[in-house]
Amino acid sequence: MKVNNFYLYLTLFSRIFICIILPLQVVKADNYIVALVDNNPITSIDILEKSKLIHFNTKKNNDYGNIEIYFKKSLDKLVEEKLIINEAKKFNKDILILTKNDASSFVLKNFSGSRIKFEDFLNKFNLSEDVFLMNFQIKMIKKYLIDNQFSNELELYTKQVDEEASQILKDKKLNQVNFEEIRIHKDKNTKKLNQILKLILLDLKKGFNFKYIEKIYSKKIKISNKTISWKNINEIPESLFKKIFKMQEGQIIRIDKKNHIKFIKLLAKRIDGEKSKREDKFEVLKIVYNTNVISRADLNKKINTLKTNNDCKKFKKNIDVSNKVKTEKLIVRLADLNEFLINQLNSIKLNELTRPIVQKNYEMIFLKCKKIKINSIITKKEKLKRLILNKKIEILTSKLLRRLKNEAIIEIKNN
Hints:
Layout: H1 6-25, E1 33-37, E2 40-43, H2 44-59, H3 71-89, H4 95-109, H5 115-124, H6 129-149, H7 151-172, E3 176-185, H8 190-206, H9 210-217, E4 223-232, H10 238-245, E5 252-256, E6 260-270, E7 281-290, H11 296-305, H12 312-320, E8 325-333, H13 339-347, E9 357-358, E10 362-372, H14 381-407, E11 410-412
Antiparallel strand pairs: 1-2, 1-11, 3-4, 3-6, 5-6, 7-8, 7-10, 9-10
Helix pairs in contact: 2-3, 3-6, 4-6, 7-14
């Protein structure tokens, strides 16, 4: 069939293929042809091995018990790979041999140049070497085709990229705000609305964050919450930007509209593009304990006997042995926490505990383990240019694949 009908056939077949055929046959390692791309076969084993790699890249483990969820994605990727390879072979019949050598050399650098270490890695995660290397080969082959078939576009993009990078760096030096908002739709029952607003204001004064407010009150009234990433004066209405920028970090304002009431909290602001202290990130250990099982005093004694050495993971392992507490290692940005925790984490040193957050029968404390290094806000221009160019190359790659699919003959086999 011509590829004009490819997506229709692929969608229909994939449902049958993924739900019925592949789970029964691929898992048993029966090898059969699933698809033909210009008479080049894609087999069930190809799909299985590609699925394992996708799973590994996503989960970083070899628990392949639910591998069939990746079958459709694998089939799509394998079809695209065949198209790319077939096109490249028109210009260089040895393209696979050449790129495999380059890919192998590149990968071995990550294993201290040791072939044995690389093979141990593949065996440990039950991955195919050819499939693993193909991941890198395809990137090389795509670049080869883009360089050859889109030279005029690349020349134009190179000029555009420099201008775009300069503008982005200029914008990064502007005043910026990062804020969160809650939108409460006005209810016809004004008495009910006012009662809920009073409760919300009380919770906000207690330091509860907007996500908590939405979760609690969404059952009672139409309410929504969203976080707005960094914006400068050119990216949101000027009057709104000026109003928010005048606020203190952590401050909340109320804006009344015709159909809704909006609460805005300034999470952090950058003055002339300079990073806010509230952007600092820390690795912390959240410790939750039942006060009927272990007292705060006993827990403190237990904690003081353990040496953390700024290592949340080791500390978590040691304290979890008692089974009297629940712990969770977290990476947190100060601006995203409630004001109580921000003040607490700012007031203590590493390896120290916050004061407890007290609930009915349990308490929660945080151990401040280490500060996370954050990349500079002002990205180096050359690095930024590469990022912008890569995005533009992705557009060209999509354009190339659309053409190749239209020209190819792709058959999906119904075994």
